[in-house]
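Structure, all two chains, one model.
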Amino acid sequence: MTATEERQLRRALHGTLQSLSPPSVPLEAIARRGKVIRRRRAGAAVGAFALAGIVAVTSLTLRGSQLPAVPPAAPVVTAGPDGAFASGTADGHPWRLAVQNIADPGYRCLPAIVINGTDADPVYPAPGNAASVALGQAVRGMAFAFIQLPAGVGGVIVNGDQNVPAVIVNACGYRYHLVGFSYSLTGPLRITLAKPYPGWPADVFVPTLTTPGGSTQAEGLWINTYTYTAPGVTTSATLASGTLPGGQGWIIKLQFGPGGDCYEFAQNSLGSAQMGYCGPVSTPAGPETIMALPLGFGAPGVGATGYAVPVSPGTARVRAVLDNGSSVLATPRIVDGRRYVAFVVPSSRSLHRLIWLDAGGRVMASTTAVPQYGYTQFQP
Amino acid sequence: MTNRRDELAAVPDVISTEGDEDFSAFATSRWPGLVRLAFGLTGDRWLAEDMAQTALARAYVAWRRVSRADDPDAYLRRILVNASHRRFRRHRVVEQPGDPPETPVEGPADLVGERTALLAALRQLPPRQREVIVLRYWADLTDAQIAATLGCSPGTVRSQLSRALAKLRESPVLAEGDDA
């Protein structure tokens, strides 16, 4: 390494990292996260008290049930080949939680937890991973949650009177100990371990949705926590990039992981304008999430809306028809076994229709219900 | 919508004591540098902010000890690097750089192209080599300081640095240096 090379590397690295403009320091979030760590340590130091539960059911609905807590019984149940680990009826609607491979056929297995076969939440062997989801109008007033437990805990007790046993699910070569349940959005939610576990507090933290029915934008989007483990990102990839008519470069990136399908639409230079948003993860046979990311590019009147759509395995092209009749033809990009299309619509135009095409150019599906901001879901 | 926000929504979030005020000043001053360091280690802006938050949260929990340390920054760097290691251990991280942006790389004057090329080159390095490069040429640490941060020997730092630089010579960033 010559001195010139070292200077060059130092200059490039400083230029690159200094060009990044971090947001203001999130003091409250840091304090909250610190207090979670402190609370967790305190819980571990004091020691959790043993609670009782039973292993008798693989499905239940919390609302209206008044079963008393009784001592847990091992072993836990093993799920069948369909990966279902919890099911029941909530507010008259059947629900089912299962672990399913959400990769396109022929690609490496990609496990995720799905609710009624759709709205996936990528899952990895990480005890402590917990998440909840609401389905909006489909099941009003109720939400659904799962928790990954360490082996040997046996299950959880919900609100002091509901025993939910852990179910072993084998998927994609991994083994998971999962509990799943439904809960009312209007009541409290307290989750207690059936047995103490080193390093864990007696009460398990589950991120809850508090708005009855959930907001429109939150429907189908899993809210995850990794209180006892670190969060992770499985895939980061560029879906598309290009140049606007005015010469501004753009790029749409994907981050796929426990947070869902998260996208970043940015002007193509570090530290400049960007917008990020996460949406529900589509399953191969489920509804497709259409994500819209409007972004100003700094100069007055200059901007665009980035669109990203995870598409079903049979999709060969997606045609985006604009309000003036012109169209953009987008080809899917395969990332980690899943297909995505991405494109931009300049701010002077708007997206009118999306058309899914198969390999023969035949129309598979079409919709005009496209968002201008955030996401909608569409079943082709 | 961020999951992290929801995850912690139920926990009190008051910074009120004298020690907390000291911590606030400390965190505010270190935040930009931590995010940039994490970005150099990961190449991922969102993850960088998350890692910087993790590092500061852990410093917050151990604030009495951190505030009395001879070098609180060394403590922060160590937490940050450990957070990065946990990320690789706990999760199968698949980084796919994807297609390069369409912005052409036209030479030293094209800073965007240079930065893109540098990030792409760093992503190709194994995590330990990437850490050594960033800690040396961004944080300007000595071999001994890097070794203390990474929990290895200075000899390991030198060998990792040598291997990393050999790989980076193939990148356009250093190729431009040859012409200079």
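Confidence is low (pLDDT under 50) at residues 43-75, 211-217, 227-231 of chain A.
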